[in-house]
């Protein structure tokens, strides 16, 4: 593991990375395996298939390594083709489409056992001055006043086993009750707002902060689809799978500082749900925008 990823540096009030964050940093330290080919590993704590946020974050690192510093990624558009085997490494193949004066474009294809898992288009652009505006930061409680999401699992560990046993490299704090708590109160909610930051300091490399946000962007974005209907992960029989995921990065940020992920679902139809979200800095600046489409199937209890 390279020193740039293995050692957290100053720049945030946080202490060094937690054990799970250290694992995420190791996952982002891809092994170069030939011209424009990189190998990504899985964590020891895994889901039944490769986590989509892992695919997006590792693909961002792979693409960024072929562009070099000084030209930040400004947009990624990813499509999920099939589920990955979390027991096997993943090859990331990067195709270079353009290296212009201000822009660069890459396609990253994730391959496992000679089958495509995922394809992502990544666009890079030199930052410049221009018009600026953004939607305002929602009025929510400060993250320091809110519990970590792990505390909300109490008493529901058997129902939420997938979340309990998953890696937790990101400190997440819901400003509203999460789906499994809302289920108990009977409340429906058409939006979800969660403070997030890496669980410890990150290296100064901006690409690592972008990749960490991308990893996090796949954690709660579909929540509003089910809470709109008063449903919950773990407590209702729901099958969900991401179809596509896009992120636009608007300005530089550190993801070891708090960012509010505000999500909502404008539509669900045809067994698919669409969710969109905004990441805000504490100062109100809009940092990134996400849109994700997922297959969402609910199987109500019989009778």
Characterization of this structure:
The protein is α+β, with helices and mostly antiparallel strands. Strands 1-2-4-5-6-3-9-12-11-10-8-7 form a 12-stranded antiparallel β-sheet. The protein has helices spanning 3-6, 19-27, 52-65, 161-165, 179-185, 206-216, 223-227; strands at residues 31-32, 37-40, 73-80, 90-99, 103-112, 115-125, 170-174, 191-198, 238-249, 259-269, 272-281, 286-298. Mean pLDDT is 93; it is low at 1-12. The chain is globular, with a radius of gyration of 19 Å. Helix 3 (52-65) runs antiparallel to helix 6.
Note the overall shape.
Answer: globular
Mean pLDDT: 93
| Helix content percent band | 10-25%
The order of strands across the largest sheet is 1-2-4-5-6-3-9-12-11-10-8-7
The radius of gyration is: 19 Å
The chain-level structural class is alpha+beta
The biggest sheet amounts to: 12 strands, antiparallel
Topology:
Layout: H1 3-6, H2 19-27, E1 31-32, E2 37-40, H3 52-65, E3 73-80, E4 90-99, E5 103-112, E6 115-125, H4 161-165, E7 170-174, H5 179-185, E8 191-198, H6 206-216, H7 223-227, E9 238-249, E10 259-269, E11 272-281, E12 286-298
Antiparallel strand pairs: 1-2, 2-4, 3-6, 3-9, 4-5, 5-6, 7-8, 8-10, 9-12, 10-11, 11-12
Helix pairs in contact: 3-6
């Amino acid at each position: 593991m390279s020193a740039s990823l293995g050692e957290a540096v100053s720049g945030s009030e946080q202490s060094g990375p937690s054990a799970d964050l250290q694992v995420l940093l190791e996952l982002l330290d891809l092994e170069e395996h030939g011209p424009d080919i990189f190998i990504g590993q899985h964590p020891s704590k895994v889901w039944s298939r490769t986590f989509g946020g892992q695919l997006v974050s590792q693909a961002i690192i792979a693409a960024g390594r072929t562009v070099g510093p000084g030209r930040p990624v400004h947009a990624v558009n990813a499509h999920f083709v099939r589920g990955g085997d979390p027991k096997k490494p993943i090859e990331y193949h990067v195709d270079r489409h353009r290296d212009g004066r201000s822009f660069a474009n890459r396609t990253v294809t994730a391959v496992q056992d000679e089958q495509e898992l995922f394809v992502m288009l990544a666009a890079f652009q030199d930052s410049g001055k221009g018009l600026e505006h953004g939607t305002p930061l929602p009025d929510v409680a400060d993250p320091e006043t809110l519990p970590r999401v792990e505390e909300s699992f109490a008493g529901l560990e058997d129902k939420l086993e997938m979340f309990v046993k998953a890696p937790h490299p990101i400190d997440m704090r819901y400003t509203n009750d999460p789906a499994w708590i809302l289920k108990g109160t009977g409340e429906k909610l058409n939006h979800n707002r969660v403070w997030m930051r890496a669980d410890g300091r990150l290296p100064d490399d901006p690409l690592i902060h972008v990749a960490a946000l991308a990893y996090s962007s796949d954690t709660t974005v579909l929540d509003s689809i089910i809470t709109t209907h008063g449903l919950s992960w773990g407590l209702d029989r729901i099958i969900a799978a991401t179809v596509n995921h896009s992120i636009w990065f608007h300005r530089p940020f550190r993801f070891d500082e708090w960012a509010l992920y505000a999500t909502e679902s404008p539509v669900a139809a045809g067994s698919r749900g669409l969710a969109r979200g905004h990441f805000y800095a504490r100062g109100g600046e809009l940092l990134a925008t996400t849109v994700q489409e997922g297959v969402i199937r609910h199987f109500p209890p019989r009778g």
